[in-house]
Amino acid sequence: MKKIMLPIMSAVLGMSALLSSQASAATTFKDVQANHWAKSAIESAVSKGYFKGYGNGLFKPNASVTRAEFASLISRVAKEMPLSEAGATDSFKDLEGHWSKAEVDRAVSLGFIQTKDYPNGFKPNTPITREEMAKWMSSGLMASSEEYKKAFVETKETLLPVKEAFKPGIAQAKLPYLAIAMGTNLMNGFPDGSFGMDKTTTRAESSAILLRLENVLKKEVESFADLNELRMVGTKKTNLELVSSLTTGNTSIADISGKRKTFRNGTGSLVFHRLIGVNVSESKKKQSIYTSVFMTEYGQEKYKNSGLLPVFKEITIYPKKQGFSIGDFKNGVIDKTSGMTITNKLNEKYGYEVLPTQDSVEFFAKYRNGVKIWVLEYMGLDDKEFAQFDMDDGSYAIIKKNAK
Question: Is the dihedral of CA 183, 189, 194, 198 positive or negative?
Fold first, then answer.
């Protein structure tokens, strides 16, 4: 990917900012207090000419950003990105006479905005959603690099570390855009675990996002560790080799993903989906992007330097026996496709199902057609013996210590 050097520039954001005086690095605003979380980002974005304040000395950090405004902002940040020979000159009919037309046309030409997404017009004054922001920026990155296009394909079946990914779920067509935005740290989840796809974004938040975009445009795709992890989970159905010294060797979790295993006691079966490891013991290995989804700070501290790798497995259990219970599951599976109940209550925050600790017969009775759950296991990082997963069709996967 060609690295893009971004110059300091001067531009106008909307007619309301037209009267603002020339910004400088020392610009301060009456409504941005010294302890405001985005003060540094706001001043930096203004000094670079991406944003301007209002003529009365206000920045309005909590005001929402419109489609027209964000299109103009990213167009300015990506000023050095080369335009296609057939640059857009009339992207949307409802932009005729609008202050943002030239900038929106440029954002379209650069690949940030897809005109097919707005068949009924751009509606420039509509507040932009976070989902739109993620799609625009990811689309622009893909337009600038074949590697981002590859990352897009590889994250079509990944797991995003946000509650929407578990319940109600995120449409596969949307996943890669969000994965690229999160994997490059352009956008992150909220403290409640959500991505907030339908939420709008403030001018303060957008200032921080713009500076991140500026940084991302200068870097190679492979330098983003979290995106690498999301890509691996999308293709290999595990992050194991990034977060630990364990390996699947010549086998693959992808080989058993979607495969069925019948319980030896005949009470039911399961389908295996994926395996996520959370690093708490190996300082030289990656800290997983999924850590906060599955491990509390207490849990991380408890198992720190323990020589164990907490492993979280997503499976779907299909009860067959009348009165199926957790005992039937545990007695029916003796290999590593089994697991324990996750009891740290993070499932309540993120909305994923776990094995019940009580009333399991009643629990499984509600899911006669199957229930997707997450189970927990701890794997020893120095164990000489390997763990094996065997499925009905003869496919298998092995986890062992990496000999390298």
Answer: negative
Q: At what angle do helices 67-77 and 203-216 cross, to 10 degrees?
A: 30
CA pair distance 275, 81, nearest whole angstrom: 39
> Over the chain (404 residues), what is each successive 10-residue block's mean pLDDT?
39 36 56 94 93 88 97 92 68 94 94 96 98 98 96 98 96 97 97 97 96 96 98 98 96 97 97 98 96 97 94 98 96 92 97 97 97 96 87 96 80
On whether the CB atoms of residues 189 and 207 are closer than 8 A, the answer is: no
Which residue has 């944003």 as its token pair? 51
Q: Which position has the token pair 């198992």? A: 303
DSSP 394: S
Torsion, Cα of 253, 259, 265, 268 (10° steps): 130
- Residue 269: strand pairing partners: 262, 318
Q: Under DSSP, is residue 74 helix (H, G, I), strand (E, B) or coil?
A: helix
User: Using CA atoms, how far apart are residues 132 and 177, in angstroms rounded to an integer?
Assistant: 9
Q: Rounded to whole angstroms, how far apart are CA atoms 345 and 153?
A: 33
pTM across the whole model: 0.90
